[in-house]
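Hi R.,

Here's the chain you asked about this morning:
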Amino acid sequence: MIKISYKNKMASIKELLELRKQIKSKKPDFIRQDIRKKARLKIKWRKPRGLDSKIRRKLNGRAKPVSQGYRSPKNTKGLHKSGLRQFMIKTIKDMDKLSPKEHCLIISSSLGKKKRVEVLKKANERTFQVVNIKDTEDYIKKAEEAIISRKNAKQEKEKKQKTEKGTKKAEEGSNKEDKKEMEKREKDKVLTKKGI
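And here is the predicted structure, written out as tokens:
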């Protein structure tokens, strides 16, 4: 077990990350008081303020309240477990300010497939670590295939619509001609009956 004080500035980032991992493994789930008794309560921490509250008084066997003892070391705040600082990417330009030795990337969920593929290609060129996608090259291949198949499906759909429109117009035209012929025949019948 590593024993490092929080104030030890000489401790390396790796040691501090290991310490953070140990602290977080012992951290309990902070649940609100009486959450099991009342269904309407949400799973969010609220400080117990009652005079007789057992959690506020920190009695043994009760849920643990939030306290500073569960805090991670200051130097590891915002760091990924690899030791790099995380940064959210929303455009390709966001990468220009960053360096691969200090930052790892999180690609925003609001990015579409095309932009995401562009961002991943640039990240691979600059050797950035992407946190929320495990195998970037495999993801790029699958995304490009999906984009191509979607384009093909769209083109086929447009062709079908054009052919359907053409056949509908032809049918409408033939229907009009048929109607005219039928009307002529009826008129001829009426005229021939009158003539008799």
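One quick note: DSSP finds three helices and three strands in the chain.

Cheers,
M.
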